[in-house]
Design goal:
The protein is of the alpha+beta class. The protein contains 15 helices and 19 strands. α1 crosses α5.
Length: about 475
């Protein structure tokens, strides 16, 4: 379609709108058809826009400003008819807004005074001013109709993935061509480390679709967590059909992400479905996200197990939950403490986002030390026992100072006195051996248990 074709045809059409010649009717409909094809709008939408524009032009030049005027264009012949509301009166003072009772009854037999009738009032000649006005309004209405169609199309895609081509790159934003319209990707929606260039094809997440004076405003993102969620739905059939559910996603775009998945059907390996054979499925998503690392882990209704899984690849010995504060303390082996925290705290930060719990990391040695100190303080406070730090042996001592110098009560006998000399010697050796073994430990024991397919360790208070 050559430049300037659209205004010229519409101008000629409006000039002769009062009585279109038969030769112009076909040209008028041809212009309508070509406009609808160029703008990607339906023929009815274009006809409606033209009718509305002509009504505005006729109202301004042939009727009163507040009068109700409508225009109908025949989609078959292209004939234009103008209708205006008029008041039925005895004596007509303003033919633009009034009609006599006799004329009214020709149109409607039961018409009465003060009735309002819709009367055909097609002007004979719209005039040049009306033509220019109609041309401007038609173009405006076409733009509005186009913007409305684009908004309706993309508003249904909000929260989904769309494909686009980078049109231009500015310091703080990137503009993408989505076909019928343009979208903007602000700096805070761009993935860290990604570089964009003109002509590059991208799959982006459509964050928002809003109306603006210049048309629909589309905001897209490459850093949104739901971009990863939608990519998993596209790549993993089990996620798409609901067999595997994505419970939560934590993402630091361009660096690393964690995804918690749960199998709704018994016997289905949720993590295996997402990873795929030889990691093919997850590798496709990693490639789409520019090499971003993705950890897929099992979700559990038990917060302790879920937190332990979220801190992977670090091993978790024990998790203490404080439900009131929604916080947890994870005990990690000393050699894995840095792995659990991650580079600049990235691993534990993602685990916090994924689980929604505040997580404190504590090494096993620190946890054992605090446990031993708390137990010693409790014993000293009660005055029942004093810990021998050097040997690790506990010696029962009464609270009185003189009690330590008292001799054993008469009639009490020790095991060494009751047993034979040989048996007593063996008992003493066993006692010393047991005491030495206990003193070699760090003052705390861990009980191993298996919960939800995960090895968990709890503190053993019976030491």
């Amino acid at each position: 379609m050559r430049s300037g074709f659209q205004p010229t045809f519409l101008l000629c059409t409006v000039k002769r709108a009062g009585g279109l010649a038969k030769s112009m009717k076909s040209d008028f409909l041809l212009a309508i058809t070509q406009l609808s094809a160029e703008k990607g709008l339906s023929r009815d939408v274009v006809l409606g826009a033209v009718e509305s524009a002509l009504a505005s032009a006729y109202r301004k030049n042939n009727f009163t400003p507040n009068q109700v005027v409508s225009v109908k264009i025949s989609p078959v012949t292209g004939a234009v008819m103008v209708w205006a509301e008029k008041l039925v009166v005895k004596m007509v003072s303003d033919p633009r807004t009034e009609i006599s009772l006799a004329e009214a009854r020709k149109l409607k037999k039961d018409a009465e005074l003060d009735d309002i009738l819709n009367v055909e009032s097609t002007p004979q000649n719209a005039g040049r001013i009306a033509a220019q006005t109609a041309k401007q309004v038609i173009l405006q209405r076409l733009h509005e109709a186009e913007h409305s169609a684009i908004f309706d199309e993309f508003s249904g895609k909000a929260g989904d993935i769309v494909s686009g081509v980078v049109r231009r790159v500015e310091p703080k934003q990137v503009f993408l061509d989505l076909g019928r319209t343009e979208a903007v990707m602000p700096a805070n929606e761009q993935a860290t480390g990604e570089r964009y260039r003109a002509g590059q094809s991208l799959r982006v997440y459509l964050v928002e679709v809003a109306q603006s004076p210049k048309g629909p405003a589309l905001v897209v993102s490459r850093s949104h967590p739901n971009l990863l969620r939608r990519l998993l739905e596209l790549e993993v059939p089990e996620v798409f059909n609901g067999t595997v559910e994505i419970k939560s996603v934590a993402r630091e775009a361009g660096a690393r992400s964690k995804v918690a998945v749960y199998a709704r059907q018994e016997g289905v390996d949720a993590v295996g479905c997402c990873v795929g054979l030889r990691g093919l499925r997850i590798q496709n998503i990693v490639s789409e996200l520019g090499g971003e690392k993705i950890d897929v882990l099992n979700w559990s209704p038990d917060p302790a197990i879920f937190i332990a899984n979220a801190l992977s690849p670090a091993q978790v010995l024990a998790v203490k939950i404080d439900e009131k504060r929604e916080s947890a303390i994870a005990v990690i082996p000393d050699r894995m403490q840095s792995l659990a925290i991650g580079k600049e705290g990235q691993n534990v930060r993602l685990a916090v986002k994924l689980t929604g719990w505040r997580i404190d990391i504590k090494s096993a040695s620190d946890a054992e030390k605090e446990k031993a100190e708390a137990k010693a303080a409790s014993s000293v406070k009660s005055g029942v026992a004093v810990e021998d730090v050097k040997t690790g042996l506990s010696e029962a001592v009464p609270t009185g100072s003189a009690a330590s110098t008292e001799k054993p009560a008469k009639g009490l006998r020790f095991a060494e006195d009751i047993l034979s000399p040989a048996a007593a010697d063996v008992a003493v050796k066993d006692k010393k051996k047991k005491a030495g073994k206990e003193s070699a430990e760090d003052g705390i024991r861990l009980k191993k248990s298996r919960r939800g397919g995960v090895d968990m360790y709890d503190f053993d208070d019976e030491i």
